Amino acid sequence: MTPHEPILVGDTVAKSRYHLTRESLVRYAGASGDFNPIHYHDDAAKSIGLPGVLAHGMLTMGLSTQCVVEWLGDPARVTGYRARFTKPVVVDPEEGAIVEVLAEVGQVDRDAGTARIDLTATFDGHTVLGHSQVWISIA
Question: What's the CATH superfamily of 12-20+56-137?
């Protein structure tokens, strides 16, 4: 589906898989300035009861919207976003982690020229973001 076609509630507009590695986390830490050791050091993560190194929450949020931005072709058409963190993404030192995102139309307001895209972001069979929604301009 292209962003120029009329969209209907229930349409899947994008679906993506993102492979995160420890290198991805280091790069994100450098870009974001978030150098919390739970994002790169197993001992630090385990010392506070975590199962291992976790992906940054904001990285997970950003990835979840990326497929919508790619579908739209213009990030300026994203007018709002919200999400709630429900489960962490644990990034294995060897295999990394795969985050899968499904973007479906949840609401369309043709009069206002807007739509709400509902996102389902999963890792290891579990939803990692709750109530994840992106509002877009369809005008």
Answer: Hotdog Thioesterase (3.10.129.10)
Inter-residue contact 100 to 16 (CB < 8 Å): yes
| Mean pLDDT of all residues in 122-128 | 97
pLDDT tens-digit map of 5-36: 789 999 999 999 999 999 999 999 999 999 99
Angle between helix axes 57-72 and 22-32 (nearest 10 degrees) is 90
Please compute, for residue 76, the number of CA atoms within 13 A of its CA located in the half-sphere on the CB side: 1
